[in-house]
What we know:
Blueprint: E1 4-5, E2 12-14, H1 17-22, E3 32-34, E4 38-42, E5 47-51, E6 56-57, H2 79-90, E7 94-96, E8 102-104, H3 107-121, H4 126-139
Helix pairs in contact: 2-3, 3-4
Amino acid sequence: MNRFFDIDGDVSLQLAPWKLRAQGKPLSVALFVLQVPLRFRSDIAGGIITVPQGYVSDLASIPQFAWSIFMASDDPRIELGGWVNDVLYQYEGVVTLEDGRQTALTRRDADNILANEAMADLGATSFQRMAVYQALRRFGHGWKKESFTERFT
């Protein structure tokens, strides 16, 4: 099943250093702009999550030193899922699905959506998915309602 639809290929445009500088952003972090709306069908969320055109993200937030272990943040096996994961993290799991229903996901749900739905659909190996999931659980940005011990489950 294709969870991403209406997508023909790469949908990201990396911001140039002079754009980053003009926006007061650090040059050490690559930022990307979503060129088209991104629709993703998630069983965990129970519907279609939409990332709006023009959304700005660092994608998978993988530090450069870890690229050889995992993958680069714009690797095709994680890039599209990174957009979805960033939206879920930004709103701490409270998103409105395409059909108008609002859902409240946990951080664990968001991490599972990236690793076990999106990355699986994008051709990542089970090792890559497990490694990204474990890294997210331990080092991903915490949510207000989450206890520290939840990071390790």
